[in-house]
Design a protein that fits this description.
Two copies of one chain form a homodimer.
Chain A (H helix, E strand, L loop, with lengths): L4 H16 L6 H8 L3 H7 L3 H26 L3 H17 L6 H7 L6 H24 L6 H25 L2 H14 L4
Chain A binds a DNA duplex (19 and 19 nucleotides) through helix 3.
Chain lengths: 187, 187
DNA sequence: ACCTGAACACCGTTCAAGT
DNA sequence: ACCTGAACACCGTTCAAGT
Protein backbone atom coordinates (compact mmCIF):
# COMPACT_ATOMS: atom_id res chain seq x y z
CA UNK A 1 0.00 0.00 0.00
CA UNK A 2 2.99 2.26 0.53
CA UNK A 3 3.51 3.07 -3.11
CA UNK A 4 4.00 1.14 -6.30
CA UNK A 5 6.53 -1.62 -6.57
CA UNK A 6 8.16 -0.13 -9.63
CA UNK A 7 9.21 3.02 -7.76
CA UNK A 8 10.41 0.94 -4.81
CA UNK A 9 12.55 -1.14 -7.14
CA UNK A 10 14.06 1.95 -8.73
CA UNK A 11 14.90 3.53 -5.39
CA UNK A 12 16.64 0.42 -4.12
CA UNK A 13 18.41 -0.13 -7.44
CA UNK A 14 19.62 3.44 -7.58
CA UNK A 15 21.24 3.19 -4.16
CA UNK A 16 22.82 -0.09 -5.18
CA UNK A 17 24.30 1.28 -8.41
CA UNK A 18 25.63 4.42 -6.73
CA UNK A 19 27.43 2.19 -4.26
CA UNK A 20 28.51 -0.77 -6.39
CA UNK A 21 28.03 0.15 -10.03
CA UNK A 22 25.93 -1.34 -12.80
CA UNK A 23 27.86 -4.58 -12.62
CA UNK A 24 27.34 -4.71 -8.89
CA UNK A 25 23.58 -4.48 -9.28
CA UNK A 26 22.07 -7.90 -8.64
CA UNK A 27 18.44 -8.71 -9.45
CA UNK A 28 18.40 -11.32 -6.73
CA UNK A 29 19.75 -8.98 -4.05
CA UNK A 30 17.42 -6.28 -5.28
CA UNK A 31 14.49 -8.67 -5.02
CA UNK A 32 15.41 -9.48 -1.43
CA UNK A 33 15.54 -5.75 -0.57
CA UNK A 34 12.15 -5.10 -2.15
CA UNK A 35 10.54 -8.28 -0.81
CA UNK A 36 9.70 -10.07 -4.05
CA UNK A 37 11.29 -12.79 -6.15
CA UNK A 38 13.89 -11.88 -8.77
CA UNK A 39 11.55 -12.99 -11.54
CA UNK A 40 9.14 -10.27 -10.42
CA UNK A 41 11.76 -7.60 -11.05
CA UNK A 42 11.80 -8.80 -14.63
CA UNK A 43 8.07 -8.20 -14.85
CA UNK A 44 8.66 -4.46 -14.26
CA UNK A 45 12.02 -4.25 -16.04
CA UNK A 46 12.39 -7.03 -18.59
CA UNK A 47 16.18 -6.76 -18.68
CA UNK A 48 18.89 -5.27 -16.50
CA UNK A 49 19.51 -2.81 -19.32
CA UNK A 50 15.91 -1.57 -19.11
CA UNK A 51 16.33 -0.92 -15.40
CA UNK A 52 19.71 0.77 -15.84
CA UNK A 53 18.41 3.03 -18.59
CA UNK A 54 15.34 3.98 -16.53
CA UNK A 55 17.59 4.85 -13.57
CA UNK A 56 19.89 7.04 -15.64
CA UNK A 57 16.96 8.75 -17.35
CA UNK A 58 15.25 9.65 -14.08
CA UNK A 59 18.59 10.73 -12.61
CA UNK A 60 19.28 13.17 -15.46
CA UNK A 61 15.74 14.55 -15.31
CA UNK A 62 16.04 15.20 -11.60
CA UNK A 63 19.44 16.84 -12.08
CA UNK A 64 18.02 19.25 -14.66
CA UNK A 65 15.28 20.32 -12.26
CA UNK A 66 17.68 20.81 -9.37
CA UNK A 67 20.23 22.74 -11.44
CA UNK A 68 17.63 25.02 -12.97
CA UNK A 69 16.39 25.77 -9.49
CA UNK A 70 19.87 27.13 -8.71
CA UNK A 71 19.77 29.46 -11.69
CA UNK A 72 16.38 30.80 -10.69
CA UNK A 73 17.29 31.26 -7.04
CA UNK A 74 20.46 33.24 -7.59
CA UNK A 75 21.99 35.65 -10.06
CA UNK A 76 25.42 35.04 -8.62
CA UNK A 77 27.66 32.68 -10.61
CA UNK A 78 29.87 31.81 -7.65
CA UNK A 79 26.84 30.85 -5.57
CA UNK A 80 25.41 28.66 -8.33
CA UNK A 81 28.67 26.81 -8.91
CA UNK A 82 29.01 26.22 -5.17
CA UNK A 83 25.54 24.66 -5.12
CA UNK A 84 26.49 22.62 -8.16
CA UNK A 85 29.61 21.13 -6.61
CA UNK A 86 27.64 20.52 -3.41
CA UNK A 87 25.26 18.23 -5.29
CA UNK A 88 28.18 15.97 -6.18
CA UNK A 89 29.48 16.32 -2.65
CA UNK A 90 26.20 15.04 -1.23
CA UNK A 91 26.62 11.69 -3.02
CA UNK A 92 29.89 11.19 -1.14
CA UNK A 93 28.41 12.21 2.19
CA UNK A 94 25.67 9.63 1.57
CA UNK A 95 27.79 6.59 2.49
CA UNK A 96 30.60 7.39 0.07
CA UNK A 97 28.31 6.94 -2.90
CA UNK A 98 29.09 8.17 -6.38
CA UNK A 99 27.24 9.96 -9.14
CA UNK A 100 25.05 7.34 -10.81
CA UNK A 101 26.26 8.27 -14.26
CA UNK A 102 29.87 8.80 -13.23
CA UNK A 103 30.22 5.26 -11.99
CA UNK A 104 28.37 3.95 -15.03
CA UNK A 105 30.65 5.90 -17.37
CA UNK A 106 33.57 3.96 -15.93
CA UNK A 107 31.73 0.75 -16.81
CA UNK A 108 31.17 2.01 -20.35
CA UNK A 109 32.16 -1.20 -22.13
CA UNK A 110 29.89 -3.34 -19.97
CA UNK A 111 26.78 -1.26 -20.59
CA UNK A 112 23.99 -2.21 -22.97
CA UNK A 113 23.52 0.50 -25.64
CA UNK A 114 20.27 1.81 -24.15
CA UNK A 115 22.04 2.47 -20.83
CA UNK A 116 25.01 4.04 -22.53
CA UNK A 117 22.74 6.49 -24.33
CA UNK A 118 21.15 7.66 -21.09
CA UNK A 119 24.50 7.98 -19.36
CA UNK A 120 25.69 10.17 -22.23
CA UNK A 121 22.65 12.36 -21.78
CA UNK A 122 23.72 13.12 -18.21
CA UNK A 123 26.97 14.58 -19.52
CA UNK A 124 24.94 16.61 -22.03
CA UNK A 125 22.58 18.12 -19.47
CA UNK A 126 25.49 19.01 -17.19
CA UNK A 127 27.47 20.68 -19.96
CA UNK A 128 24.38 22.52 -21.23
CA UNK A 129 23.60 23.84 -17.78
CA UNK A 130 27.19 24.93 -17.14
CA UNK A 131 27.25 26.71 -20.51
CA UNK A 132 24.07 28.53 -19.52
CA UNK A 133 25.65 29.53 -16.22
CA UNK A 134 28.96 30.65 -17.72
CA UNK A 135 27.18 32.62 -20.44
CA UNK A 136 25.23 34.75 -17.97
CA UNK A 137 28.19 36.86 -16.99
CA UNK A 138 29.59 38.84 -19.90
CA UNK A 139 32.85 37.37 -21.01
CA UNK A 140 35.17 37.59 -23.94
CA UNK A 141 35.23 33.81 -24.41
CA UNK A 142 33.91 32.37 -27.68
CA UNK A 143 30.97 29.97 -27.60
CA UNK A 144 33.34 27.09 -28.27
CA UNK A 145 35.69 28.12 -25.46
CA UNK A 146 32.73 28.33 -23.10
CA UNK A 147 31.54 24.87 -24.09
CA UNK A 148 35.00 23.43 -23.55
CA UNK A 149 35.30 25.10 -20.17
CA UNK A 150 31.90 23.71 -19.18
CA UNK A 151 33.03 20.23 -20.22
CA UNK A 152 36.27 20.70 -18.27
CA UNK A 153 34.40 21.73 -15.12
CA UNK A 154 32.12 18.71 -15.35
CA UNK A 155 35.03 16.33 -15.95
CA UNK A 156 37.04 17.85 -13.10
CA UNK A 157 34.14 17.53 -10.65
CA UNK A 158 33.56 13.90 -11.66
CA UNK A 159 37.27 13.25 -11.21
CA UNK A 160 37.31 14.87 -7.78
CA UNK A 161 34.43 12.63 -6.77
CA UNK A 162 36.13 9.53 -8.17
CA UNK A 163 39.41 10.15 -6.36
CA UNK A 164 37.78 11.22 -3.08
CA UNK A 165 35.61 8.13 -3.16
CA UNK A 166 38.64 5.94 -3.74
CA UNK A 167 40.19 7.42 -0.60
CA UNK A 168 36.89 7.24 1.24
CA UNK A 169 37.64 10.79 2.38
CA UNK A 170 35.28 13.66 1.66
CA UNK A 171 37.99 16.14 2.67
CA UNK A 172 39.83 15.10 -0.48
CA UNK A 173 36.82 16.26 -2.49
CA UNK A 174 36.63 19.59 -0.68
CA UNK A 175 40.35 20.26 -1.08
CA UNK A 176 40.28 19.36 -4.76
CA UNK A 177 37.29 21.60 -5.50
CA UNK A 178 39.00 24.41 -3.61
CA UNK A 179 42.17 23.88 -5.66
CA UNK A 180 40.09 24.09 -8.86
CA UNK A 181 38.73 27.40 -7.65
CA UNK A 182 42.17 28.73 -6.74
CA UNK A 183 43.50 27.76 -10.15
CA UNK A 184 40.64 29.61 -11.82
CA UNK A 185 38.93 26.60 -13.37
CA UNK A 186 35.79 27.22 -11.31
CA UNK A 187 34.27 30.70 -11.32
CA UNK B 1 57.65 -21.91 -24.32
CA UNK B 2 57.05 -18.23 -25.00
CA UNK B 3 57.26 -17.01 -21.41
CA UNK B 4 55.75 -17.92 -18.12
CA UNK B 5 52.03 -18.39 -17.73
CA UNK B 6 51.80 -16.01 -14.81
CA UNK B 7 52.96 -13.04 -16.91
CA UNK B 8 50.64 -14.05 -19.75
CA UNK B 9 47.71 -14.15 -17.34
CA UNK B 10 48.57 -10.73 -15.98
CA UNK B 11 48.85 -9.17 -19.43
CA UNK B 12 45.50 -10.54 -20.54
CA UNK B 13 43.85 -9.62 -17.23
CA UNK B 14 45.21 -6.11 -17.35
CA UNK B 15 43.72 -5.49 -20.79
CA UNK B 16 40.43 -6.94 -19.60
CA UNK B 17 40.23 -4.75 -16.49
CA UNK B 18 41.17 -1.58 -18.38
CA UNK B 19 38.30 -2.31 -20.75
CA UNK B 20 35.64 -3.76 -18.48
CA UNK B 21 36.67 -3.12 -14.89
CA UNK B 22 37.41 -5.44 -11.99
CA UNK B 23 33.85 -6.72 -11.99
CA UNK B 24 34.08 -7.36 -15.71
CA UNK B 25 37.14 -9.56 -15.24
CA UNK B 26 36.12 -13.19 -15.64
CA UNK B 27 38.42 -16.07 -14.71
CA UNK B 28 36.70 -18.27 -17.26
CA UNK B 29 37.11 -15.79 -20.11
CA UNK B 30 40.67 -15.12 -19.00
CA UNK B 31 41.39 -18.84 -19.03
CA UNK B 32 40.08 -19.10 -22.60
CA UNK B 33 42.34 -16.20 -23.68
CA UNK B 34 45.39 -17.75 -22.08
CA UNK B 35 44.57 -21.29 -23.16
CA UNK B 36 44.16 -23.02 -19.82
CA UNK B 37 41.23 -23.96 -17.58
CA UNK B 38 39.89 -21.47 -15.08
CA UNK B 39 41.04 -23.63 -12.19
CA UNK B 40 44.61 -23.13 -13.42
CA UNK B 41 44.31 -19.36 -13.03
CA UNK B 42 43.58 -20.03 -9.38
CA UNK B 43 46.84 -21.93 -9.11
CA UNK B 44 48.76 -18.73 -9.93
CA UNK B 45 46.35 -16.32 -8.25
CA UNK B 46 44.34 -18.06 -5.54
CA UNK B 47 41.59 -15.44 -5.56
CA UNK B 48 40.42 -12.72 -7.90
CA UNK B 49 41.56 -10.24 -5.25
CA UNK B 50 45.12 -11.60 -5.45
CA UNK B 51 45.13 -11.06 -9.19
CA UNK B 52 43.61 -7.59 -8.95
CA UNK B 53 46.12 -6.51 -6.31
CA UNK B 54 49.04 -7.86 -8.36
CA UNK B 55 47.80 -5.95 -11.41
CA UNK B 56 47.46 -2.67 -9.54
CA UNK B 57 50.85 -3.10 -7.88
CA UNK B 58 52.66 -3.71 -11.16
CA UNK B 59 50.74 -0.84 -12.76
CA UNK B 60 51.82 1.65 -10.08
CA UNK B 61 55.42 0.44 -10.24
CA UNK B 62 55.53 0.91 -14.00
CA UNK B 63 53.97 4.35 -13.69
CA UNK B 64 56.65 5.47 -11.23
CA UNK B 65 59.39 4.40 -13.64
CA UNK B 66 57.79 6.13 -16.60
CA UNK B 67 57.10 9.35 -14.73
CA UNK B 68 60.59 9.55 -13.26
CA UNK B 69 61.94 9.12 -16.77
CA UNK B 70 60.12 12.33 -17.70
CA UNK B 71 61.74 14.25 -14.86
CA UNK B 72 65.19 13.05 -15.87
CA UNK B 73 64.69 13.76 -19.55
CA UNK B 74 63.53 17.32 -19.20
CA UNK B 75 63.94 20.30 -16.91
CA UNK B 76 60.87 21.93 -18.40
CA UNK B 77 57.70 21.66 -16.31
CA UNK B 78 55.36 22.21 -19.26
CA UNK B 79 57.04 19.42 -21.21
CA UNK B 80 56.82 17.00 -18.29
CA UNK B 81 53.13 17.68 -17.69
CA UNK B 82 52.42 17.22 -21.38
CA UNK B 83 54.10 13.81 -21.26
CA UNK B 84 52.14 13.03 -18.11
CA UNK B 85 48.73 13.77 -19.64
CA UNK B 86 49.79 11.86 -22.76
CA UNK B 87 50.22 8.70 -20.67
CA UNK B 88 46.55 8.87 -19.71
CA UNK B 89 45.68 9.75 -23.28
CA UNK B 90 47.36 6.59 -24.54
CA UNK B 91 44.95 4.41 -22.57
CA UNK B 92 42.07 5.97 -24.48
CA UNK B 93 43.78 5.61 -27.84
CA UNK B 94 44.26 1.93 -27.01
CA UNK B 95 40.67 0.89 -27.78
CA UNK B 96 39.06 3.42 -25.46
CA UNK B 97 40.61 1.81 -22.42
CA UNK B 98 40.88 3.47 -19.05
CA UNK B 99 43.50 3.85 -16.37
CA UNK B 100 43.56 0.54 -14.50
CA UNK B 101 43.30 2.24 -11.13
CA UNK B 102 40.83 4.88 -12.27
CA UNK B 103 38.28 2.30 -13.30
CA UNK B 104 38.93 0.31 -10.14
CA UNK B 105 38.48 3.42 -7.98
CA UNK B 106 34.96 3.68 -9.36
CA UNK B 107 34.36 0.11 -8.23
CA UNK B 108 35.67 0.95 -4.77
CA UNK B 109 32.88 -0.79 -2.82
CA UNK B 110 33.24 -4.03 -4.79
CA UNK B 111 36.98 -4.35 -4.23
CA UNK B 112 38.58 -6.71 -1.72
CA UNK B 113 40.73 -4.77 0.77
CA UNK B 114 44.03 -5.90 -0.73
CA UNK B 115 43.02 -4.49 -4.12
CA UNK B 116 41.75 -1.28 -2.59
CA UNK B 117 45.11 -0.73 -0.89
CA UNK B 118 47.01 -1.05 -4.16
CA UNK B 119 44.57 1.23 -5.99
CA UNK B 120 45.13 3.85 -3.30
CA UNK B 121 48.86 3.56 -3.80
CA UNK B 122 48.43 4.58 -7.43
CA UNK B 123 46.91 7.87 -6.29
CA UNK B 124 49.80 8.29 -3.88
CA UNK B 125 52.53 7.80 -6.47
CA UNK B 126 50.81 10.19 -8.85
CA UNK B 127 50.41 12.90 -6.24
CA UNK B 128 53.98 12.43 -5.03
CA UNK B 129 55.35 12.73 -8.53
CA UNK B 130 53.27 15.81 -9.30
CA UNK B 131 54.44 17.42 -6.06
CA UNK B 132 58.02 16.74 -7.09
CA UNK B 133 57.36 18.31 -10.48
CA UNK B 134 55.56 21.38 -9.13
CA UNK B 135 58.24 21.91 -6.50
CA UNK B 136 61.05 22.15 -9.05
CA UNK B 137 60.10 25.59 -10.21
CA UNK B 138 60.37 28.20 -7.44
CA UNK B 139 56.93 29.22 -6.32
CA UNK B 140 55.34 31.04 -3.45
CA UNK B 141 52.91 28.20 -2.78
CA UNK B 142 53.06 26.46 0.60
CA UNK B 143 53.80 22.74 0.73
CA UNK B 144 50.16 22.08 1.53
CA UNK B 145 48.94 24.19 -1.39
CA UNK B 146 51.30 22.33 -3.70
CA UNK B 147 50.03 18.98 -2.47
CA UNK B 148 46.44 20.04 -3.01
CA UNK B 149 47.19 21.29 -6.48
CA UNK B 150 48.91 18.00 -7.31
CA UNK B 151 45.85 16.12 -6.09
CA UNK B 152 43.61 18.42 -8.13
CA UNK B 153 45.63 17.82 -11.29
CA UNK B 154 45.48 14.06 -10.82
CA UNK B 155 41.72 14.14 -10.14
CA UNK B 156 41.08 16.40 -13.12
CA UNK B 157 43.05 14.16 -15.49
CA UNK B 158 41.20 11.06 -14.24
CA UNK B 159 37.91 12.89 -14.73
CA UNK B 160 38.84 13.94 -18.25
CA UNK B 161 39.61 10.33 -19.05
CA UNK B 162 36.37 9.12 -17.50
CA UNK B 163 34.19 11.57 -19.41
CA UNK B 164 36.04 11.14 -22.71
CA UNK B 165 35.75 7.39 -22.40
CA UNK B 166 32.03 7.69 -21.76
CA UNK B 167 31.71 9.60 -25.00
CA UNK B 168 34.09 7.24 -26.77
CA UNK B 169 35.75 10.37 -28.14
CA UNK B 170 39.42 11.12 -27.55
CA UNK B 171 38.88 14.70 -28.78
CA UNK B 172 36.88 15.26 -25.59
CA UNK B 173 39.99 14.35 -23.60
CA UNK B 174 42.21 16.69 -25.61
CA UNK B 175 39.79 19.60 -25.33
CA UNK B 176 39.36 19.09 -21.61
CA UNK B 177 43.10 18.96 -20.94
CA UNK B 178 43.52 22.09 -23.04
CA UNK B 179 40.81 23.84 -21.04
CA UNK B 180 42.61 22.86 -17.81
CA UNK B 181 45.75 24.47 -19.19
CA UNK B 182 43.92 27.62 -20.27
CA UNK B 183 42.35 27.94 -16.84
CA UNK B 184 45.76 27.64 -15.22
CA UNK B 185 45.19 24.33 -13.45
CA UNK B 186 47.97 22.69 -15.47
CA UNK B 187 51.37 24.41 -15.63
C1' DA C 1 55.30 -27.71 -10.20
C1' DC C 2 51.42 -27.19 -12.87
C1' DC C 3 46.99 -28.46 -14.58
C1' DT C 4 42.22 -30.48 -14.62
C1' DG C 5 37.03 -32.11 -13.91
C1' DA C 6 33.54 -31.90 -10.98
C1' DA C 7 31.03 -29.75 -7.57
C1' DC C 8 29.21 -25.61 -4.89
C1' DA C 9 26.49 -21.39 -4.42
C1' DC C 10 26.04 -17.49 -7.06
C1' DC C 11 24.28 -14.60 -11.47
C1' DG C 12 20.61 -12.67 -15.39
C1' DT C 13 17.07 -14.47 -18.07
C1' DT C 14 13.06 -17.13 -19.75
C1' DC C 15 8.67 -19.14 -19.42
C1' DA C 16 4.84 -21.79 -18.23
C1' DA C 17 1.97 -21.61 -14.38
C1' DG C 18 -0.50 -19.57 -10.74
C1' DT C 19 -3.74 -15.71 -8.50
C1' DA D 1 -2.13 -7.18 -13.61
C1' DC D 2 1.28 -9.08 -10.88
C1' DC D 3 3.93 -12.76 -9.00
C1' DT D 4 6.32 -17.36 -8.76
C1' DG D 5 9.26 -21.97 -9.26
C1' DA D 6 12.03 -24.21 -12.12
C1' DA D 7 15.25 -24.36 -15.59
C1' DC D 8 19.24 -22.52 -18.49
C1' DA D 9 24.00 -21.02 -19.14
C1' DC D 10 26.91 -18.15 -16.76
C1' DC D 11 30.20 -16.75 -12.48
C1' DG D 12 34.33 -17.38 -8.60
C1' DT D 13 35.98 -20.86 -5.76
C1' DT D 14 37.42 -25.35 -3.83
C1' DC D 15 39.50 -29.71 -3.92
C1' DA D 16 40.74 -34.27 -4.86
C1' DA D 17 43.01 -36.18 -8.64
C1' DG D 18 46.13 -36.41 -12.34
C1' DT D 19 51.02 -35.69 -14.71
Amino acid sequence: MTGDTKATIMDAARAMVQARGYNGLSFRELAKDVGVKSASIHYHFPTKGDLGAALARRYSDEAVDIFNGFLEASQDTETCIKKYTDVFRSALSNNNRMCLCGIMAAEHDDLPPEVRAEVDRFTDVNVEWLVKLLSRGRSKATAEETRQRALAIFAAVEGAQLVARGRGDIAVYDQTIEAYRRAGLLP
